[in-house]
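Fold it.
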Amino acid sequence: MVRLDRRAVPAPDSDADSLGPVAGIGEEEAHLVGVVRWAAKIKGEDLRLSTTLARPLAREVGCSVRLFGCRHGTPFAEMPKLHIEIGELRHKTYDGDREVAFGGIEVHRSSRDIQIRVPLTTLRQPQWVLAAVQVHEGPVPLEWPLWRVLEIGDATIPGS
């Protein structure tokens, strides 16, 4: 069983499409801020995020997803701190403030919806992930990020 924010969710081999909303806001606020809803799930060896925005991304308006892997026995400083910066047409991936190759990360966007697939190996098989989604206009955030702890469980590195 995988746990997410202290709520039981289906195991990774489940056929369920979603672990449910991780964060959400009311309809009134949705017209003012960028992230209406986001959800997370484990599918196979991947962390999958689904985000719905109030409006589609534009030239100056982007979305940032931050994923910080954590694992018992490994110093936090040694774990990846991914920042996926999503623009209207393309995206960039950073580890800390250093741009890195995509490492199997996939981003799909259509209108207001963004789907992200991150292999757990890219996050170094974390037991939990600190995660946040935020919309910004240039360097100015349009809302405060809502950080969540995604409990992955005792992930093991294949072949070890």
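The first helix runs from residue 27 to 30.
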